[in-house]
Amino acid sequence: MIESVIQFSLPFIAIGFLFLALLVHKRAVSAPGWISIAGYCYFEADDYLAKEEYFDASLVLVLLALSLILAFIMLRPTLSERREEDSLYTLTKIALISAVFYFPFAEITVLGDSLIFITAKITTIVLNIFNLGVYMVPPSCIYTTDCSFHAIYQPITIILACTAIQGMVIFIGLIFGVKAPIRRKLKAFFVSVPVIYAANIVRDVFVSAAYFELWFGPPLDSFFIAHNVIARIFALLALIAIAYAVFKILPEALDFVEDFIAALTSSFRVHKAI
Questions:
Q1: How many domains does the chain have?
Q2: 175-228 pLDDT, tens per residue?
Q3: Does the structure show a pLDDT above 70 at 80?
Q4: Which domain holds residue 128?
Q5: Does 211 fall in a domain?
Q6: How many CA atoms within 13 Å lie on the side-chain side of 82?
Q7: HEC readout, 33-85
């Protein structure tokens, strides 16, 4: 119970410190926010490991390590290059925007369940358009109409990770966190966030169809190949293509990435010199 309360509280504590850091324009103030995010990642990784979701756990552990590194960097002395220093504040803004759009869905049940329901409903509709014969049991389960299948195998269950919210909020934060004309920001938004969600529906439909229709052998084998191999490769390639489009429309986002990498390098050089 206490762990659940702590896990629920950490992201909102992080949001508070990130907002305060921007308000007072002191990046050191954001350090407790990054530590709070790292703490949240610890609980998330523990949950994934308990479910034997090792791939997702490894990604969260990488984010945990990165958050601790960023907390350390935010406490370092001011950098000599103005653009590199500004990139750290831009990162704080990007993190704040992403956190505001992600954590309420992750931690407030009614919001997360609503997004899951919408995604499961759309997936069901698309599957039936292709005559795959499925039905949905709210809020998140998709069954095949072949009753004998479910005498042995479970339905497809849509979870928050199946909504692509993680990818969408990263691009929302990046697009609206950098300085650029609003017209180009909106253009970058429309070629990224809706496209990510649409591509995710394709992914969910593909995995569900492969599972129910035994595309790659027995149901569990089909699910593993479709979900853990093909869908992940598809998602990676789609994100690369979307990122390329965003950087073409919004070169300021690419400038931020370059400046931030330079800031990371400079921060550790400062540390070594001291």
A1: 1
A2: 999 999 999 999 999 999 999 999 999 999 999 999 999 999 999 999 999 999
A3: no
A4: 108-253
A5: yes
A6: 0
A7: HHHHHHHHHHHHHHHHHHCCCHHHHHHHHHHHHHHHHHHHHHCCCCCCCHHHH
